[in-house]
Amino acid sequence: MNSNQLFYGALGLAGAGAMGAGMVAAGGPGLAFGFCAYLTLGGAAVCIWEQSIVRSAFSLMGTFLGVAGLFVLLGSDFLAMAQILIYVGGILALLLFGVMLSPPDNNERSLARVGGTTVMIGAGVAFIVAQISGGVAGWLVADQLPEPNSQARAIGLAFLDPKQYVVAFELAAYLLTVALVAAVYIARRRRADFEPESEAQGGQS
Amino acid sequence: MLALMQNGGGALAQTPNEGTNFLHELLLWLPLPEWIPGWALILGAVGAGVGILVGLVSLIALWSVWMERKVSGHMQCRNGPMYAGGWHGWAQTIADGIKLFQKEDMIPIGADRALFVLSPAIVLASIFGALAALPLSYDWYFARMDLGIFTILAIGSTTTIGVIMAGWASNSKWSLYGAMREAAQVVAYEIPLGIALMVPLITLGTFSLLDASALQSGFFGMGWAIFQNPLCLPAFIIFWIAALAETKRAPFDLPEAESELVAGFLTEFSGIRWSFFFMEEYAAMFLMSAVGAVFFFGGFESPATYALRSAGMEGTIVFSLVCFVTLVLKAFTGVFLMMWLRWTLPRVRIDQVMTMGYKYLTPLALICVLGAAIWEAILHVVLN
Amino acid sequence: MTSPPQAEHKPSIRPADEARTLPSGEREFFMDVATSDLEVNMGPQHPATHGVMRVLLRTDGELVTGAQPHLGYLHRCAEKIGESVEWLQYLPYTDRYDYLSAMNNNLSYSLAVEALMPELEIPRRGTMIRMICAELNRIASHLVAFGTYGLDIGAFTPFFYAFREREWIQALFEKICGARLTYSYIRIGGVFNDTPPGWLQEVADFCDVFEEKWQEYYDLLIENHIFVQRTANVGVISEEMAYDFGLTGPMLRGSGVDFDLRRDMPYLEYGEAHDAGAFKVPIGTGEKGTVGDCWDRTQVRMVEMMESLGLVRWCLEQIEPGPVIGDVPRVIKVPPGEAYVGIENPRGELGHYMHSDGGKIATRCRVRAPSFVNLAVLEDLMPGTLLADSVAIIGSTDIVIGETDR
Amino acid sequence: MDFQAIADHLSVAQVPGLLSVELPRSPDKETKDKGRSGLPYLCVEPSRIVEFLTFCRDDDALGFEVLVDLTASDPSADDENLWILIQLLSVRHRQRLGIKCLLPKSALSMPSSTKVYRAAQWHERECMEMYGVTFEDHPDPRNMLLPDDWVGYPMRKDYEFPKEYHGISCE
Fold it and tell me: Which of A35, B199, C264, C301 lies in disulfide reach of B235, CB 3.0 to 4.6 Å?
């Protein structure tokens, strides 16, 4: 049994434990919470553990989706969907775009793998075990989930209301535009205007 | 799991006072023993919803594949499938499906097995999740969502991750090219897609697909957004181009560009895994067409629903059915349009795709939004 | 990465750290970000190589920075066989090099052998049937070129339309010689047999229908905006470059060179046909982009189909009853000597160099295959283009691997 | 110009390497000449081929822009010479020219024509693998059609077919 199997075994057990504990504590919503929390933390753990940097990046998808799920549970579905749209559909895709093209470098990542992950996973498992063994009384259990109400209208009004955040909103927009233009400028291929077109088509005869 | 979570979110989002999930209602209505807890009912509803979704996606794919073959066949002076099942080869896709199930499950030696196996699941789960947000009729829906369109776009965008995963896990250079193209293309076209959809959203003033449809019921069921605001037509064209790019359909089928990249991210896939990607593609086509139908072409509304409503049949099962059929017909008109374009146009080049997305579609979509906003302002503020 | 054993020599693949030319003509240099180029094998089994050819590509993202064609996957020793079998026995092998225009291959071989046999007289009817067959086959071949080029660019439907018309031509050939692809119909001394009754009328019917269909295809694909965007200004071959690489046929004419062996070095009755105004020679004009780009080459092929149609019609007018094959013995003995005859094949000049020492078997049978020569230009044309462009370039050379490898 | 005019023009210009002119001729019993059918060609000295081709290409009256074909021929196993055959084409003047170089089989080496016509590159590669001719200064002397580990020169008349190839019996 190698360390990888051990890790994924522990991860699976932790998932079952998290969902089971959630269900015992708060029924269906608890189960959903346990699942989302497990996705979030499990994705993060895999991200640290995995040697392959691309797998690490893919595991972030679990984290992002888990966070989105937590937002849903907290009754904020606009935020949840924004989270998925921006983080999974946009940022993660770009991240993968970059990471896929980078050469693998396993040595750098092994340190984090041995040290950080073990400590983190151990601490997490210990915490959960302690919590369960100490009884779930200490947990904060919401008796009812908040009602989901899309705050889209509220957010929109807040952004466009001169008395609230319209200045900040517009400033952020300008900042992002400037950042975008700057990024394009930096990433652009530099063109040198010297060296005339002599051997361009001539090739190697 | 993803679909479950999504649906769980949706089901949990039910509030007792308004518009609960009809599956949940059904389960509540059934004479079930008392000791079954409420959450089990919710889970049951979720399970049934997932079952219906899987069936729906399979049906859409089955029908669409057959339709694609017939459409392409007739456009190319062929008949397409004619034998399987008897009448015009209607059972061809079923036969193909059975064949695909029986095929050897191949994973290349150098492939990243875990990701290779996971990628079709992610792709399929994302389309399930997105389709779950699509109402099938005024009272047939999996989850009543105020943010329906936002949800569809968000969850639909996770397909990209599955495709990138497939491309990377295959450990083939052609697949990697496909994955890179997919990443670049989808990120580029999500922007004009979303912005173009803002035009009907401004016109109708809602994110909800149900509300959007209901708001287009005027003029004998023809008060469609495209007739309400002149900017909707250019916005629809932009939306449609972006939707083609999002669903990887020709002329934007660069991720799988079979004459350039062999089959792109699909190169190493075979059998049932490959068919999952195929199902996703057709389901996504249906979904995008349905979204276009709901936000530009009246959704469930048509003279037929108007007539039924005038006859006081609103709320009956017949009315629901007519709404459903209306939407499906509109959506499949869109699917047909996609097929028509695919079998007519050559493929564009990646730099042209990027140029079109960033340089033309996005600014044009922004102008459309601005115009739509001005139009609405004139209509409602100035003229009022 | 599969590294071929001969990986040490890569003259055409430029070093990665060098400056390179973008498709727009700009020179660009690398930033200090460390990146490495990706080497991809396009082929031997790849939809864009139209057969078993391998192009080793070095790519930087989508940008192709080096290309190296590797041939020989379909090498069937045609030339060696030509030195081992009798003169007439070799004829079926000629069908196999460019299997899309087997009539023209037969014709080239027959003409080369006939050049060594000064006494042999070819009857005029035989010549006319030869011309009809060669031109019909040219149309069929260009139809495939047009259809598969559409496939390369991503348009499926033109392919089926093209094959529908080609099917008709093949049916016509089937009636005349019994074969649909490898005809061996044009023989040393004439053609194998006379046309079946009514065949010439069927050819005339085909001409009438095809003329209408041709316009459809032109509008559907060649004038399509996306197609123009994909092919115009892509893979530009200048006139000098075309000469340097020895290009012939539509590749040369696409570069704006007004040269056609049928008109300028007439064989059969092409000279007479041209004087009668039966055909013109289309050349690339750079209408949509630059002279010598992929669009020009494709357009030249398209227009050539119509010109071939004119030739077929002229032949149908001229043809008269009579014998179709000259006095050829069953076992041919060719007088000693050597001759090179090149004719205008759909893909360029198909030349046969035949050397006889007076016996029943050729001493040397050399096939100058147009695809082989035209393919060499890839090494120069592909660096600096995008991956999709390189596919467009390979398609525009209209190669048949059976011919490059022989 | 017809062939005779081309030959005259070349000999007047005293182009380096031009050896003789071969025309078709009828059989002659007295000289035991079997005769020669087909097309005329020029015999050129192999070592001067680059200068010769350069002249043919650059001379205005000749203007052979295109090298159509370059190949070799092994007339018989007994013959001590290998022939290198070059076909030129002038697009401007609509004329062809056949050139033949005799290379002794003991020293199969001649300058590469690639510098004059790049079309020669692939033809020469084919010649090299098929006949074992060495073209000096060839930029890319790899096998063209044959596998890289092929033994022997298959188009030579004295070539013996291999008994096996990579463990595959050929008999």
Answer: B199
Measured between beta carbons, the chain C residues lying within 8 angstroms of D142 are: 6, 9
Yes or no, beta carbons of C156 and B347 under 8 Å apart: no
Under 8 Å CB pairs connecting chains A and B tally to 124
Task: Give mean pLDDT, residues A19-25.
Answer: 74
Measured CA to CA, the distance from residue C152 to residue C159 in angstroms comes to 10
Q: What is the share, in percent, of chain B residues with pLDDT greater than 90?
A: 4
Domains belonging to chain D, first-starting first, are: 3-169 (3.30.460.80)
Shortest Cα distance, chain C CAs vs residue B173, angstroms: 7
Q: What is the pLDDT of residues D31-90, one digit of tens each?
A: 777 777 778 888 888 888 888 888 888 888 788 888 888 888 888 878 888 888 888 888
Compare CB distances from C351 to D87, D141, D146 and report the shortest one's residue: D87
Residue B34 has pLDDT above 80, yes or no: no
CB-CB: which of C157, C230, C391 is closest to B75?
C157
- B12 pLDDT above the threshold of 70: no
Hey, where are the domains in chain A?
3-143, 151-191
Instruction: Write out chain D in H/E/C secondary structure.
Output: CCHHHHHHHHHHCCCCCEEEEECCECCECCCCECCEEECCEEEECHHHHHHHHHHHHHCCCCCCCEEEEEEEECCCCCCCEEEEEEEEEECCCCEEEEEEEEEECCCCEEECCCCCCCCHHHHHHHHHHHHCCEEECCCCCCCCCCCCCCCCCCCCCCCCCCCEECCEECC
pLDDT at position A175 is: 92
Is C149 a member of any domain? yes
**C-beta atoms of C75 and D76 within 8 A:** no
Distance from CA of A73 to the nearest CA of B (A): 7
User: Per the structure, how many domains does chain C have?
Assistant: 1
Asked whether the beta carbons of residue A152 and residue B147 sit closer than 8 angstroms, the reply is: yes
Domain membership flag for residue C27:
no
Average the pLDDT over each of A139-148, C288-297, D16-25 and give the range with the smallest value: A139-148
pLDDT tens profile C375-405: 888 888 888 888 888 888 888 888 888 888 8
- A204/C27 Cβ within 8 A: no
- Record: contact C368-D122, CB cut-off 8 A: no
Q: How many domains does chain B have?
A: 1
Using an 8 Å CB-CB cutoff, list chain B residues near C46.
Answer: 262
CB nearest to A203's CB, from C27, C36, C380: C380
| pLDDT tier, B2 (very low <50, low <70, confident <90, very high otherwise) | very low
Mean pLDDT of chain B: 81
- Region of C41 (left: φ > 0; alpha: ψ -120 to 50; beta: rest) is beta
pLDDT tops 80 at residue C41: yes
Cβ within 8 Å, pair D114-A204? no
Please check whether residue C80 touches D, CB under 8 A.
yes
A106-110, B20-24, C201-205, C357-361: which range is least confident on average? A106-110
**For B182-215, b where at least 16 C-beta lie within 10 A, e where not — what string?**
bbbbbbbbbbbbbbbbbbbbbbbebbbbbebbeb
* C7 has a pLDDT exceeding 50: no
Domain A3-143, CATH 3.40.50 — does that match? no
DSSP A133-178: HT-GGGS---SSPPPP--THHHHHHHHH-TTTTHHHHHHHHHHHHH
Q: How confident is the model at residue B238 (pLDDT cuts 50, 70, 90)?
A: very high
Domain membership of residue B91 as a residue range: 2-382
Residue C59 lies in a domain: no
CA-based nearest residue in chain C for residue B256: C154
Interface of B with C in 43-102 (CB under 8 A): 72, 75-78
Nearest CA in chain D to A203: D118
Contact D38 C116 (CB under 8 A): yes
The verdict on residue C7 lying in a domain is no
Q: Tell me the ipTM for this assembly.
A: 0.78
